């Protein structure tokens, strides 16, 4: 089928005892794109990844990856996907080269082919200088890059990344973003789970917001932000300034009901084309002799989206889902 999506899930349900991890999750990921599952710990992201990568059977629902049923055709599917879990699944007592060779052999590559592929990946991920050092001497960012390299031993067309930048400093996170972007540019389909709003904003073609085991909204970053309204001008009126007069000046530019906080002397005005309005607003307020302590143009963020949709911000919650280890998938090839 020419237009078959790379990943499709319908009505996935999974419970751990009394905990409902998934409550009917639906998902579609088109080939050659990045879909970010955005949500807090415990929302169902890792459970979804485990089902889609054949590591866990759903209690209900069905899923296909690369056109293969994740239950009925699990053995065939494992050769076509890569997985990087939340924690690096490499052996810290082996060298970087030895780790990659081991993964290659688990996938039934010959010794010579496994070494060749390992060397290619070490070069691609800028780990050549550390190739013969034990992984226990690697930094966190180096371990994450090695872990991602291991998931690419077989050049899978579909890659699952479960919070791949967890524990990395900002520099390491940016480096990992570059790696992921390059993989997608080469045609890889990526399903990415993350708690980092800026990560989803930066990398994803589509974002699925997950809460309490189901997808509650999906779209591009701009589409999701548009759901909660556009730009707004935010002002703080100086002491002695007339808030009511300021509100009357701003009324001409507002596309909705302004929000006025008299205690904090703060006004929020929903607008369109806010950047073009700022100078005019400043001029009109100055003409009305209304002094300001602060003036800003604010656009919605993914944090605003998540807060509006769920009633709470993305913050770490108790994780009932467990963690993902990439190595069981490789072992299952034996």
TrEMBL record:
It comes from Dictyobacter alpinus. The keyword Transmembrane does not apply. Its main location: membrane. InterPro entries: AAA+_ATPase, ABC_transporter-like_ATP-bd, ABC_transporter-like_CS, ABC_transporter_ATP-binding, DrrA, DrrA1/2-like_C, P-loop_NTPase. Residues 7-237 form the ABC transporter domain. It is a peripheral membrane protein. Pfam families: ABC_tran, DrrA1-3_C. This is Daunorubicin resistance protein DrrA family ABC transporter ATP-binding protein. Belongs to the ABC transporter superfamily. Drug exporter-1 (DrugE1) (TC 3.A.1.105) family. It is found in: Cell membrane. GO terms for cellular component: plasma membrane. The keyword Membrane applies. One of its GO terms (molecular function) is ATP hydrolysis activity. GO terms for biological process: daunorubicin transport; doxorubicin transport. Keywords: ATP-binding, Cell membrane, Membrane, Nucleotide-binding, Translocase, Transport.
């Amino acid at each position: 089928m020419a237009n078959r999506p790379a990943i499709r899930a319908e009505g996935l349900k999974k419970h751990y005892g009394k905990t409902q991890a998934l409550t009917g999750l639906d998902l579609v990921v088109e080939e050659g794109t990045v879909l970010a599952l955005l949500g807090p710990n415990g929302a169902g992201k890792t459970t979804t990844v485990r089902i889609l990568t054949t590591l866990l059977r759903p209690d209900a629902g069905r899923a296909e990856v690369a056109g293969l049923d994740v239950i009925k055709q699990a053995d065939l599917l494992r050769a076509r996907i890569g997985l990087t879990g939340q924690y690096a699944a490499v052996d810290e007592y082996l060298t970087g080269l030895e780790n990659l060779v081991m993964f290659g052999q688990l996938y039934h590559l010959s010794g010579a082919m496994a070494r060749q592929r390992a060397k290619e990946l070490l070069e691609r991920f800028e780990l050549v200088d550390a190739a013969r050092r034990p992984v226990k001497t690697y930094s966190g960012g180096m371990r994450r890059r090695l872990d991602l390299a291991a998931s690419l031993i077989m050049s899978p067309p579909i890659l699952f990344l479960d919070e791949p930048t967890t524990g990395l400093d900002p520099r390491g996170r940016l480096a990992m973003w570059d790696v992921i972007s390059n993989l997608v540019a080469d045609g890889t389909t990526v399903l990415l789970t993350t708690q980092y709003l800026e990560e989803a904003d930066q990398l994803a073609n589509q974002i699925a917001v997950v809460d309490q085991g189901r997808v509650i909204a999906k779209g591009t970053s701009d589409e999701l932000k548009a759901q909660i309204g556009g730009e707004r001008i935010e002002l703080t009126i100086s002491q002695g300034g007339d808030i009511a007069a300021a509100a009357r000046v701003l009324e001409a530019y507002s596309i909705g009901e302004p929000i006025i906080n008299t205690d904090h002397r703060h006004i929020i005005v929903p607008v369109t084309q806010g950047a073009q309005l700022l100078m005019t607003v400043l001029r009109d307020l100055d003409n009305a002799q209304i002094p300001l302590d602060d003036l800003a143009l604010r656009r919605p963020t993914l944090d605003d989206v998540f807060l509006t949709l769920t009633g709470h911000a993305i913050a770490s919650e108790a994780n009932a889902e467990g963690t993902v280890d990439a190595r069981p998938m490789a072992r299952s090839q034996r």
